[in-house]
């Protein structure tokens, strides 16, 4: 069996996708007998199964606390990433034959690093695929456009580049002017195997979370962001008296107050419930267990994957989705829920009505499809693909 190194600056942070992603992929690799080292910034979360290596903090890191949260994260990545890459260099000296997977990265720093340290088998995941066409905020847009050349250098330096959907692959090739023959591959976005997950009954989960027992629940789980369509699910639930919308997760570039104002404007009252905190993975079974449907409403132009939309299959709950083509194709091809056109409130309300009225036979068939997707797209299966690509001589 092999030793793998996963580089993921945000793997211990209570926001974003990295903790769940690295935890799942790392456990999948360890479950196949591999040893996994994770290089990451220090943070409040704890990864199991893997060995964690963090960079030494600098005294000036604390000076960034005066900045707004989003600007602080950008500044920290730019300033601290070279330090973390030095930690990676030391670890690669100890394990010179270990393949390295760059799960997330700051483009400018990694491009410089790969110019000097481009030996061994390396892979990288491009969770975001826009550079020249980025339009999300002034700072992010400027950064992504400046980083396009560095991103192209990274993609050309790695043995394999992963994206999470065919449309994302096409966009990355176009954005970075990469040839069709580039080793850019579609990798499934993993989730726990349903056979390994214990889901409480709806009644038990709702009692534990203080949620209403007599209504259907549409769950929105994750960070509030502007590339998520908050308005359509709010208005669809407003038109569906038997449904409650529950949002659980931290603020991002959208605020709790914005969501509350949407609820007030549409007369939701107590049928909008907001749990204002980061929801750790150990509590996901409660939230998914309490839900009847899970909301996945996104801007159709979104250029990254939805981790929540993939994780929910581990808990045998269906999706109600609108947004980018890769997400809609996933729901349709695997038969794991309902898709509606973007911003179509009537279609979303009709999907809520249809789901509430499913016969026991149709509900059981839907759950079986979700279970099959969960098994075939589990972290174990994703880890096997990564191991075969990066270390084919050490896979079984």
Automatic annotation (TrEMBL):
The record, for Gene3D superfamilies, names: Glycogen Phosphorylase B (3.40.50.2000)
Q: Which UniProt keywords apply?
A: Glycosyltransferase, Transferase
Highest rank taxon of the organism: Bacteria
**A GO molecular-function annotation:** glycosyltransferase activity
User: By what name is this protein known?
Assistant: Glycosyltransferase involved in cell wall biosynthesis
Species of origin reads Actinoplanes campanulatus
């Amino acid at each position: 069996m092999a030793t793998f190194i996963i580089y993921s600056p945000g793997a211990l942070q209570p926001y974003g996708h990295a903790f769940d992603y690295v935890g799942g992929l790392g456990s999948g690799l360890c479950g196949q007998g591999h040893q996994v080292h994770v290089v990451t910034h220090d943070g409040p979360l704890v990864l199991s199964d893997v060995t964690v290596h963090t960079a030494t903090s600098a005294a000036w890191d604390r000076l960034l606390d005066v900045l707004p949260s989003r600007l602080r994260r950008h500044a920290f990545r730019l300033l601290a990433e070279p330090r973390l890459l030095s930690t990676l260099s030391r670890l690669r000296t100890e394990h010179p034959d270990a393949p390295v997977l760059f799960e997330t990265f700051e483009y400018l720093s990694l491009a410089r690093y790969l110019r000097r340290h481009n030996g061994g088998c390396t892979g990288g995941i491009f969770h975001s695929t826009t550079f020249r066409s980025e339009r999300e905020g002034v700072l992010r847009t400027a950064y992504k456009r400046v980083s396009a050349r560095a991103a192209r250098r990274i993609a050309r330096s790695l043995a394999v580049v992963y994206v999470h959907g065919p449309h994302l692959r096409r966009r990355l090739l176009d954005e970075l002017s990469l040839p069709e023959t580039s080793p850019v591959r579609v990798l499934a976005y993993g989730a726990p195997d349903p056979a390994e997950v214990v889901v409480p009954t709806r009644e038990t989960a709702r009692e534990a979370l203080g949620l209403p027992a007599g209504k259907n629940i549409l769950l929105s789980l994750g960070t509030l962001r502007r590339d998520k369509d908050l308005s359509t699910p709010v208005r669809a639930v407003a038109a569906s008296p038997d449904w409650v919308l529950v949002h659980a997760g931290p603020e991002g570039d959208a605020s709790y107050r914005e969501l509350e104002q949407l609820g007030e404007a549409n007369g939701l009252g107590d049928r909008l419930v907001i749990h204002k905190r980061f929801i750790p993975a150990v509590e996901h079974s409660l939230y998914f267990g309490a839900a009847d449907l899970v909301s996945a409403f996104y801007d159709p132009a979104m250029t990254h994957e939805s981790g929540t939309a993939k994780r929910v299959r581990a808990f045998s709950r269906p999706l109600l989705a609108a947004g980018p083509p890769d997400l809609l194709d996933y729901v349709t091809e695997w038969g794991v829920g309902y898709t509606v056109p973007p911003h179509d409130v009537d279609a979303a309300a009709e999907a809520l009505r249809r789901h509430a009225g499913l016969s026991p036979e149709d509900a059981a068939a839907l759950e079986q499809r979700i279970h099959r997707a969960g098994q075939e797209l589990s972290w174990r299966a994703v880890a096997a693909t990564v191991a075969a690509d990066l270390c084919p001589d050490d896979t079984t």
